[in-house]
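INFO worker-7 received task bundle
INFO bundle size: 2
INFO processing item 0
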Amino acid sequence: MPQKSSARRGALMAELTVESRRYMAAYALFNQAVADHLRLHPTDLQCLNLLGLETVPVTTGRIAELTGLTTGSATRLVDRLERGGYVTRERDTVDRRRVLVATVPERMAEIGAVWERLGGAWAAMFEAYDDDEVALLIAHMRRTVELGAQQVAALRESGPSVSGPGGAGGAGDPGSP
């Protein structure tokens, strides 16, 4: 049910906007640091993360869908990952015309070891929340993923902004909830 407008609500929404921008920047910087540690590009690291969530090898077209990249950019990404030994390309046994991209378990284990080392601190942070709060966080993350995908699609459809840097800001800020 929508909340009624109040001074407190306005202040909370303003604070949420600021903190969400900090959160997104912190995550991007964290992702960059992990990628640097692994000597990967941040997009490549996130692609491997997403491939690790898939249950079967996928096409480059699927990688483009998962990452929001064009098929050409996804192909170049797969080329880099293949050169780095993180993925292999294999013919689909059902449809020999299709080429599937599969992760290399040993290389994924290397990434997993880094996440494992860092994961204890994240797990400890989440232990501070009760079950209802964890459920709220999960719901928020799912909604964020869905909305983020919609926003990415809208941005890609509209093309580059003509207003340039330093726009009006406010509710349209990239970090706004």
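INFO item 0 finished
INFO processing item 1
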Amino acid sequence: MNSIVVQESPVGTFTQLAIGQSFTVGDVQHGWQVVELWPDEELAQIGIFKLSPAMVPAGEEVVSGNIERVDGVVKQVVITQPAVLKASARQLRLAMNATGLRDDIEEYVASQSRDVQDSWQWTTEFESTHPFVVGAAEQLNKSTEELRALFLLAQTF
């Protein structure tokens, strides 16, 4: 079953039920079989809802989520943010070569402190949200979208 099963009690408060978990409505305890056998309309009458998991857009990760009633329908609602993208130093350099950014990056790094130069030379994996990476992108007037595109391209190498 790839549904999320929740119980609403009191009204507006939703608690997720584990697969196989019995539950109580009023003074009546119900076995999990009720969830599997009863139609959704009957389950809703006792405050039990089967939901489809919220779709998370590609390249996004869930920051938080909850169950709520939206336009009268009980749904899982998630808040997402761009996922942290990772690429090896080799992948990133190949992507920079392919996009013509390598010389600009090398020039930028050469103008920075020894710590930055060491980081560029010796880091084996870069993260798209690391301050060094974000700072370099800003110095080269690259948008967040362009930076993400570079990392996505790098991941193909």
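INFO item 1 finished
INFO post-check item 1: The mean pLDDT is 93.
INFO post-check item 1: The beta strands are 4-8, 14-17, 23-25, 28-30, 48-51, 60-70, 73-82, 86-88, 125-127.
INFO worker-7 idle
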